[in-house]
TrEMBL record:
Residues in the signal sequence: 1-29
Organism per entry: Microbacterium murale
Name of the protein in question: Peptide ABC transporter substrate-binding protein
Keywords, ordered alphabetically: Signal, Transport
Domain of life, per lineage: Bacteria
Domain Solute-binding protein family intervals: 76-406
Family designation: Belongs to the bacterial solute-binding protein 5 family.
Length: 495
C-alpha cells in the first residue's frame, strides 16, 4: 500500500527515483543503502511534548511518528492515519475514522485510545509543545469504538485538521518516550548516541510503502564547517540546510547537487515586550529602523534568503510585503528614541544562542545599534539554556531565535507566549480567524494581525532563511523545502 502523494510534485528529482533503477538509467539504486544526513539540530530528547526541539521534528516527524494528517512539502493537509473526517453542521464536532491496518513498532494495534492519549499529552499542563494552545478549543474527546475518535470543540476552528497534523500519534500505553519511541512510521529507532548520531532502521511491517533505503543516520555537528567537511570527505551524504553561502563554492561541481527550496524559518530579534523599555512600541520601532536588514541578510546569506516585514513567510496564505512599515532609517530611529524618552539611547542584554548564525547576527546588531546610542551586551547561551531562561522563565530583555513553523503568526495573539506581546485587537482577530467560516475570511483577519504586529514592531523580523540542501550527486529523493523543519527521509536513494 502506498503512502499518499509522497512529495513527488514538490521534489522533481524524486519522480525519477525508483528502487532498483537509476534516475539516469545507469547504475541501480542500493535498496538497503545507509543514508548519512548532516544536521546541526540534535534533539534535546525524543519527545514532541517535552521540549525535544527542532531536531526531534527533523528526525522523527513522518519518519518514526505519524499524525492523523500530514502537511505536504507545500503546506497542504493530507489524510495519513485517518481515512475520513466528518464535521457537524455547527462546526463543533469532528468524527475521525482511523485506518484499520496500522500497528506501532512494538506490535500493538493503533486504536482510538492512542489518538486520545496523544492529543491529551500535547494539551496536558506539563506539555512543552509550542502548539498546545491551538488545542484549547477541544472540550472533549470520545472513543466510541477502536477506529473512531470524536472531537468536541467549544467553538468552531477552521484550522482544526491542519493543527492535528502537528500531533504525533504515539502508543498510549508506552512509558517514557524521551529516550525511546513507539511510533507507526516507516522507520524504527535503532540507536541514539547523544552528541554524535541518531540511527533509524527501515521497519519491515510498516502499513504503507516501505522506505526506499535500509537506514538513515543523522550525524550531528555543533560547527557548520565540520559538517561541510564531513560531506566533502564522504562521511555524510547530504546536509539538510547549509548555514552560510560561503560554503557553497566548494560544492559547485559535478560531485554534488545544490538545491534551493522554500523556507518557513524566520530569524527574529525578539523583545520581551513585558519589560521596559521594550514595552513601548516606539522603542521597538526605533530599534527596527536602526537595523539595515538588507545588509545583514547579505552579510549572512549573500544573494540568498528573503526580507520579511512580519512573522509571515510568502508561503502562508495571508502573506503581505510589510518591509516598508519599519524602514531602515537611522535618523528616524534617533527621532523615535528621543520621543520615547531615550535621546542618548540605553543599554540592554541580548541573550544569544551559541550556534550559527546567531553569534554573527548578534555582533552585527551590536554594531548597528551603537550608531543610535544603544549599547548591546551579548550574553551567549546554549540551546538548553535558551529554552529554560527565555522560553520557560521569560528571564530576558531581548533574544535571537529562529522560528521554523508556518502559520505561526497566531502566537502574537497569545500574551503568555515568551515574548509577551499583548494587544487586545490582535487577540480578537486571531480568535475570529480561527472561527472564520471560510479560508478567505481567515486570510483577511490574519492580514490585519500581520499589519498590526508590524506597526507595533512586536519583534524585529530580520530575514527569512533560505533553504539550501547540498547532497552528493549519487543521492536523490530528498526533500528540498523547509516546512516546519520536517525532513521526510523515506524516498532518499543512493546509486
Amino acid at each position: 500500500m502506498r503512502r499518499p502523494l509522497a512529495l513527488v510534485a514538490a521534489i522533481a528529482v524524486s519522480a525519477l527515483v525508483l528502487v532498483g533503477c537509476s534516475p539516469s538509467g545507469g547504475e541501480t539504486a542500493e535498496e538497503d543503502a545507509s543514508i548519512h544526513i548532516g544536521s546541526l539540530y540534535e534533539p534535546q530528547n525524543l519527545s514532541n511534548t517535552q521540549g525535544g526541539g527542532q531536531g526531534v521534528t527533523e528526525a522523527f516527524n513522518g519518519n518514526v511518528y505519524e499524525g492523523l494528517y500530514r502537511l505536504t512539502d507545500d503546506g497542504e493537509v493530507e489524510p495519513l492515519l485517518a481515512t475520513d473526517a466528518e464535521k457537524s453542521e455547527d462546526g463543533l464536532t469532528y468524527t475521525v475514522t482511523l485506518r484499520d491496518d496500522v500497528t506501532f513498532h512494538s506490535g500493538k494495534a493503533l486504536t482510538s485510545a492512542d489518538v486520545k492519549a496523544s492529543v491529551e499529552a500535547v494539551t496536558a499542563e506539563d506539555s512543552q509543545s509550542a502548539r498546545a494552545s491551538a488545542f484549547t478549543v477541544i472540550s472533549g474527546i470520545e472513543t466510541p469504538d477502536e477506529q473512531t475518535v470524536v472531537f468536541t470543540l467549544s467553538e468552531p476552528s477552521i484550522s482544526f485538521l491542519y493543527n492535528l497534523a502537528y500531533i504525533w500519534i504515539v502508543n498510549g500505553e508506552a512509558d517514557d518516550l524521551t529516550t525511546a519511541e513507539d511510533g507507526t512510521g516507516p522507520y524504527t529507532l535503532d540507536e541514539w548516541k547523544q552528541g554524535s548520531t541518531l540511527t533509524l532502521t527501515r521497519w519491515d511491517d510498516y502499513w504503507g510503502e516501505a522506505a526506499k533505503n535500509g537506514e538513515v543516520v543523522f550525524n550531528y555537528y555543533t560547527d557548520a564547517t565540520a559538517q561541510n567537511n564531513a560531506l566533502l570527505t564522504g562521511e555524510i551524504d547530504l546536509i539538510t540546510s547549509i548555514q552560510s553561502p560561503d560554503a557553497l563554492a566548494q560544492f559547485d561541481n559535478d560531485d554534488y547537487t545544490i538545491s534551493e527550496g522554500t523556507s518557513t524559518t524566520k530569524e527574529l530579534l525578539a523583545f520581551n515586550d513585558r519589560v521596559a523599555p521594550f514595552n513601548d512600541p516606539l522603542v521597538r520601532k526605533a530599534i527596527y529602523s536602526a537595523i539595515d536588514t538588507q545588509k545583514l541578510l547579505n552579510s549572512i546569506w549573500a544573494d540568498y534568503g528573503t526580507l520579511i516585514g512580519s512573522m509571515v513567510p510568502p508561503t502562508d496564505p495571508w502573506y503581505e510585503d510589510l518591509t516598508d512599515v519599519n524602514p531602515y532609517d537611522v535618523d528616524l530611529a534617533k527621532q523615535q528614541l528621543a520621543e520615547a524618552g531615550f535621546p542618548n539611547g540605553f543599554e540592554f542584554t541580548l541573550d544569544t544562542p551559541s550556534y550559527d548564525p546567531h553569534p554573527a547576527v548578534a555582533e552585527f546588531l551590536q554594531s548597528q545599534l551603537a550608531e543610535v546610542g544603544v549599547t548591546v551586551n551579548i550574553n551567549t547561551i546554549s540551546a538548553d539554556e535558551w529554552y529554560t531562561k527565555v522560553f520557560q522563565e521569560r528571564d530576558f530583555e531581548a533574544t535571537l531565535q529562529e522560528h521554523v513553523n508556518d502559520r505561526d503568526v497566531v502566537w502574537y495573539g497569545n500574551p503568555d507566549f515568551y515574548w509577551g506581546y499583548d494587544n487586545a485587537d490582535v487577540q480578537q482577530w486571531v480568535a475570529e480567524a480561527e472561527q472564520a467560516a471560510t479560508p478567505e475570511e481567515q486570510t483577511e483577519l490574519l492580514k490585519k494581525v500581520n499589519e498590526q504586529i508590524a506597526e507595533d514592531a512586536a519583534s524585529v523580523w530580520l530575514y527569512l532563511y533560505p533553504q539550501i540542501v547540498v547532497a552528493s550527486a549519487d543521492v536523490t529523493g530528498y526533500p528540498v523545502n523547509g516546512l516546519n523543519s520536517q525532513f521526510f527521509a523515506y524516498d532518499i536513494v543512493k546509486s
